[in-house]
């Protein structure tokens, strides 16, 4: 199996992850009050946990993939600072509690390093590919959100996602982890959809 096949094999789930009223609101400037700020605060928690995941995956990765993880870690560290700066500018407190959808995603990320490497890498690719497509679908974005659309639309980010896909394809080549990779892909698609829904204020907790 190739990682890219998963998108066509699960097109409905993938659409749920990458096309969402939240993204239409970003594009048209019609987001309900508080939605973008909620997304921003919750997504910073996601990025922090994702950074932990990459650090856990790095030592066990084949040598030829280690560079990819190293550049991913550096990019995430920079991104975390960028999130914090964005939150400061908007006077948002970063000590908020994770929403239920965030909790589910953080739990998923924490468990991912225990999965077979090819399946974990496929999931990581799906996570990044989802944001690449989702924010492209919001392009060019209302002016107050444009910086965010551009952040996940750069050629560098697209190249990173393509490198993750190549690495996932190499890792999947034996076919041994296909079933697990398929299941994790579907989980990512569902978690992404729930994350957008949470940002719009649906299914919130506490
Ligand atoms: C990403 C993200 C992309 N920031 N948040 C969610 C919920 N899914 C995917 O990850 P990155 O590392 O910020 O590009």
Tell me about this structure.
The protein has 206 residues and is mainly α. The longest helix has 27 residues, at 63-89. Helix 4 (35-57) runs antiparallel to helix 5 and helix 4 (35-57) runs antiparallel to helix 10. The chain is 73% helix and 0% strand. The chain contains ten helices and no strands. It is globular and about 50 Å long. It has helices at residues 5-9, 11-18, 21-28, 35-57, 63-89, 100-112, 117-136, 146-151, 155-172, 178-199. The structure holds (4-amino-2-methylpyrimidin-5-yl)methyl dihydrogen phosphate.
| Cα-atom radius of gyration | 16 Å
Order of helices and strands: HHHHHHHHHH
The tally of beta strands, per DSSP, is 0
- Which molecules are bound besides the chains? (4-amino-2-methylpyrimidin-5-yl)methyl dihydrogen phosphate
Distance between the termini: 41 Å
Strand content: under 5%
Q: Classify the secondary structure makeup into a structural class.
A: mainly alpha
Unreliably modeled segments: none
Secondary structure tally, helices: 10
| Residues in helix, % | over 70%
User: What coarse outline follows from CA principal-axis ratios?
Assistant: globular
Mean pLDDT: 96
